[in-house]
From TrEMBL:
The lineage of its organism: Bacteria, Pseudomonadati, Pseudomonadota, Betaproteobacteria, Neisseriales. Pfam families: BPD_transp_1 (PF00528). GO terms for biological process: transmembrane transport. Residues 200-406 form the ABC transmembrane type-1 domain. This is ABC transporter permease. One of its GO terms (cellular component) is plasma membrane. PROSITE patterns: ABC_TM1. Belongs to the binding-protein-dependent transport system permease family. CysTW subfamily. The chain crosses the membrane at residues 34-57, 204-223, 235-258, 286-307, 342-363, 383-406. It is found in: Cell membrane. It is a multi-pass membrane protein. It comes from the Bacteria. It comes from Crenobacter intestini. Keywords: Cell membrane, Membrane, Transmembrane, Transmembrane helix, Transport.
Amino acid sequence: MSESVPMPGVLLAADGVPLKARLARQRRLRQLKAVLLVLPLMLFLLLTFLLPIGALLTRSVDNPEVAAVLPQTGRALATWDGRALPGDDAFLALAADLARAKEEKTVPELAKRLNMEEPGFRSLLQKTARKMPLEAGEAPKAALLDIDERWGELPYWRAIARNGDTVTPYYLLSSLDMQQGVDGTPQLKAGEERAFLSIFGRTLWMSFWVTVWCLLLGYPLAYWLSQLPARRSNLLMILVLLPFWTSVLVRVAAWIVLLQREGLINSALMSLGLTDAPLELAFNRVGVYIAMVHILLPFVILPAYSVMKSIPPSYMRAAISLGDHPFAAFWKIYFPQTVSGVAAGALLVFIMCIGYYITPALLGSPEEQMVSYYVAFYTNVTINWGMAAALGTLLLAATLLLYTVYQRLVGSDKLSLG
């Protein structure tokens, strides 16, 4: 029996298997082991992070109340143009739906949803439902108008027609101070009805200034720590990390004690004769800025310090020895190499700022509340999950946009500046 002769140029393993096939098999086994190792973490993130967020975001467009309680009315209004009162079939369908809703006790949730669209709808529906069902042979249109003349006004019928589907842009549009017009196109609300655009603007403005102050304070401190001997810098770094061991709520409460009119800072300033009266440092924007900068400052220092520590000091010495001014050498040689770490810290601070809740809620006035305050308000007070989810969706979109911009600017392997 003749032995198999290997093909020329093909390397074989000890068992006669081609070496290339053996290496490919081992590579696949290593990849499978890596996937199995991270699989529990992926499942944990999926079940505890991605699925809850996805479920919450769907609430921003979820609209089951009207479609479930007024199905016949929705079908009757499907082809209605909204420019004149609907026909008798719509009044008949509404009377039948309200009679069934009264028996099933679903009128309150319907009234709550439609009252968001048109003020006064709650009282209209409750008043009408009490008279349901109509007497046999009674004309539904005349009967409904006799119960309440508001059934002869177009805005109430338009609100029902807009919500005939189980998906609605209402919450997202309201979060942007917009509404659907008669023809269904989005349009800005009247000036006195707008609120959320200014809230989003305030959130971004306050986050911007907190980030700026963190950069102005954190960059020099990170540079100083990077220039110290390792033993001293490690000791001082413990002081930078120390606030992480204290609850944010405790730190905010401590700032309230320090910044209030009878607090330690005002008492010290007045005892030194620097001020004649207490300064307003708490329950305004100044106090919010001070507390947020104190809490978020380490998030700038740590990435900046890690980048600065990796820059060889010989670069600066070489530039100075070649005749460059120390400041010019710092700006042209040292600073560009730290931009990636500083940008990462600034992005992290800004993203955390736009979602901040506790500090503005405790140390700020109503004029300092940010978007996250209203997410909590709609979640815990008014139980309006749609608006809470819509505001959360916009915050998430802003965060993803910022991260995309960051990746475009400093996400490359090497950041080129000029």
